[in-house]
Design a protein that fits this description.
Elements: H1 10-15, E1 22-25, E2 32-35, H2 45-58, E3 60-63, H3 70-78, E4 83-84, E5 91-92, E6 95-103, E7 127-134, E8 142-146, H4 147-152, H5 156-162, E9 166-169, H6 171-175, H7 181-190, E10 194-197, E11 199-201, E12 208-210, E13 217-220, H8 225-237, E14 245-248, E15 255-259, E16 263-267, E17 276-283
Parallel strand pairs: 2-3
Antiparallel strand pairs: 1-2, 3-15, 4-17, 5-6, 6-17, 7-15, 7-17, 8-14, 8-16, 9-10, 9-13, 11-12
The chain binds fe (ii) ion (FE2).
């Protein structure tokens, strides 16, 4: 297990910011907008190192006014690792790693549920970088929830009860809302359920966090069905507490880049029938422990 990394205070973070950058923190523990950066230019090693530490500390970082090409979007994400494709979502015809997320009155969002992405994978993603192409004048925000703070806020007896428990995550839990039975059968054969610890230790920060979510977690192993349901509901409900959250208001060319291992997100579906269009690139992750 990694040693626990001491999280810097906001004052320490601000003091350590490279010249030319300015940080706008959206809540005490999660979410920071980085002003003064141009992602059309390659990141220096120093800037990459700063942004990576900031991402680990703040769990989600944001940028404004980034009129980057699709290739630049892919390129900046490759600095963080290999890219992954999501098998059943629409991607760009020339770039399989680029998800095209386009919602309108005929194709409504189903991401208005608290979740870590793709925890039905054996190795759920490291994180994703989402860029807004066009957004409604008002509405369509994305919310993020700090699963370290959610864990730390649990009563000690609940923390002890969760120690050593594992949960099963299934693609059917999320796909069931919009795929037909044949598609479900095919996808669940390709991606059998994955088992992950209920309380995960983050591989870089060494901190513990709640790693079950409403969208993908089926049940907790070793418990009777009712007991699994009660505990799972209780743990999943923690993500919905405003004290653990930040909320991001999009405009075109805004970017959100989240650490999928530590935080959950929720796409607020309050803007239909207006359209909302995004591109997302996802970086491959590791096996939770
Ligand atoms: Fe998501």
């Amino acid at each position: 297990m990694n040693a626990i990394v001491k999280f810097p205070s906001l004052a320490e973070l601000n003091a350590g910011t490279p010249a030319g950058l300015e940080l706008e923190h959206l809540s005490p523990t999660i979410g920071t907008v980085v002003h003064g950066i141009d992602l059309t230019k390659p990141l220096s090693d120093e800037m990459f190192g700063f942004l990576h530490r900031l991402l680990m500390d703040r769990q989600v970082i944001f940028f404004r006014d980034q009129d980057i090409s699709l290739e630049q979007h892919l390129e900046v994400c490759r600095r963080w690792g290999s890219l992954e494709t999501i098998p059943f979502l629409q991607h760009h015809p020339d770039y399989p790693e680029l998800l095209h997320i386009k919602r309108d009155k005929d194709n409504k969002s189903y991401e208005n549920i608290w979740h870590h992405d793709v925890t039905w994978r054996t190795e759920p993603s490291f994180g994703s970088m989402l860029r807004a192409v066009s957004v409604p004048d008002i509405g369509g925000d994305t919310m993020f929830s700090d699963m370290y703070a959610a864990y730390e806020g649990l009563p000690e007896p609940i923390k002890r009860a969760c120690e050593g428990l594992e949960a099963v995550h299934s693609i059917n839990v999320s796909l069931g809302v919009y795929a037909d039975a044949d598609k479900l059968h095919e996808m669940s054969k390709r991606f059998p359920p994955a088992t992950h610890p209920v309380i995960r230790v983050h591989p870089e920060t060494g901190r513990k966090l709640i790693f079950v979510n409403r969208a993908h977690t089926s049940y907790i192993k070793g418990l009777r069905r009712d007991d699994s349901r009660y505990l799972l509901d209780y743990l999943c409900d923690q993500a919905a507490k405003p004290e653990y959250q930040c909320r991001f208001r999009w405009v075109a060319n805004s970017i959100a880049f989240w650490d999928n291992r530590s935080c959950q997100h929720y796409a607020v579906a309050d803007y239909f029938p207006k359209p909302r269009e995004m591109y997302r690139v996802t970086i491959a992750g590791d096996r939770p422990c």
